[in-house]
Write a structure and sequence with these properties.
Layout: H1 8-26, H2 46-50, H3 54-60, H4 64-86, H5 89-105
Helix pairs in contact: 3-4
């Protein structure tokens, strides 16, 4: 099997664009929001549960980027900070259980 040796100019462009978008949206974080980077990301979370249908919400929004910046980002940051305050094994197990239920019930 042949290994992919280089992604080409187009691949590099999209890779850099993804990095830019990630950094771009971080411009909307407040100083106190950076606490979310103090914990390792997990397989699920409060924000993931609430915004499980994020793509559909953005498609339905009149201005998706404005909705994302003014609603989704602040809400997700709030949920992630709540997780940091409440995190423990029992809470993690509850989140995993709720995630499984949401996937099964869809």
């Amino acid at each position: 099997m042949k290994e992919k040796q280089n992604m080409g100019e187009r691949g590099k462009f999209f890779s850099e664009l993804k990095k830019f978008k990630r950094v771009h949206y971080m411009n909307f974080y407040k100083k106190e929001d950076y606490i979310i980077f103090s914990v390792r990301p997990g397989i699920t979370g409060l924000a993931s549960l609430k915004y499980r249908n994020e793509v559909e919400l953005l498609k339905a929004a009149e201005n998706p980027e404005e909705f994302y910046i003014n609603t989704v980002i602040p809400d997700k940051l709030t949920y992630n900070k709540i997780y940091i305050e409440k995190r423990n094994l029992l809470f993690d197990m509850k989140l995993i259980f709720l995630s499984v239920i949401r996937v099964i019930s869809k």
